[in-house]
Design goal:
By secondary structure, the chain is α+β, with helices and mostly antiparallel strands. The chain has helices spanning about 95-105, 125-135, 135-150, 180-190, 200-210, 220-225, 235-240, 245-250, 265-270, 315-325, 370-380, 385, and strands at about 50-55, 60-65, 75-80, 85-95, 115-120, 155-160, 165-175, 195-200, 280, 285-295, 300-305, 310-315. It is about 25% helix and about 20% strand.
Amino acid sequence: MGCTSCATSANGQPKGCKNNGTCGTDGCNKLTVFDWLSNMTLPGNQEPYNGVEVRFKNGRKHFYQNSEKLSLSIGDVVATEAESGHDIGIVTLTGELVRVQMKKKNETPNPEALPKIYRKASQKDIDVWQKVRDKEADVQKRSREIAIRLGLQMKISDVEFQGDGSKVIFYYTAEERVDFRQLIKEFARTFSTRIEMKQVGFRQEASRLGGIGSCGRELCCSTWLTDFRSVNTSAARYQQLSLNPLKLAGQCGKLKCCLNYELDTYLEALDEFPKSDVKLLTEKGTAICQKSDIFKRMLWYSYENEGMNWVPMSLEKVNEIIALNNKGKKATSLEEYIVEIEQPSEEIFSNVVGQDSLTRFDKPKRSRNKGRNKNRNRNKKRNPRKNA
């Protein structure tokens, strides 16, 4: 965990807050914003910004106005305005940086239009909030059983109680549209509270649940990634990756978001390369492209009637032949432009541990023939006539 109060205990659960990523110190929360303006004073005659950023379960954040002029700091538990009743959240950002965050999320930075913060949460509010939070795992299990009994093609991935326990939000994923009118009636009858259903995408579900990716690090969507852009298989083709769905798919079952990270760099590098369908005209014959390497700036061509004989050529030589073809001329042959590729020397043996032998400290085995040789020598000395 990220903070000292959430050190992991022997059974794998956090010692301090007992919640993975939702502690009060805000040190191990995902998508945490560093307040780099906290140690700066405002200019004279300027009041601090009245907006506050409040975080709820699984990184859900909303903006509120501090209408009561409360002295709030990061990590305070507050009671906020909701559609009915109140909700309990944790303050994650205050001051002028809240205005910047609102502009970044395309929200009007007008604090008067925001819902209000009622008060700092009392001990009674926190007890009720923690009590309903403890019921979420059991409610999620029972809700899944009801959905399976009704035969609905949906997956309830998470359950979130409002801070006062007056409403429950069910987050679900589904491939197609689901008619859950009967499901809401069952939920209202079983849990005796207001029900709200929210459909989330598979990427949003992975960001809410979290996990470890194939790279060995935490999922980008659950730590720092906030906008989910569409990922196409063309991104893998431009980067010359094998179209293996097992390797290209993430925890959500969709294409990995990291396929877009270096895509712009690859596209910029490919602008210098000719298209794969461009043919080279030579006096020996027409050549077609078989392979290209962006990092080495190399291309491999072969004649149409000799598909197995690949000729390595540099990017500059290929562009030179294409320039000749555009002028109506033909190159003599590809062999004149061939580039020799240096093959790395292969080591037959490599001492990877930096030692002569791993068994040099072992006791040598005693030879059985050693004692027999001694006895033979003694017999030779005793019976020299017999030996002669």
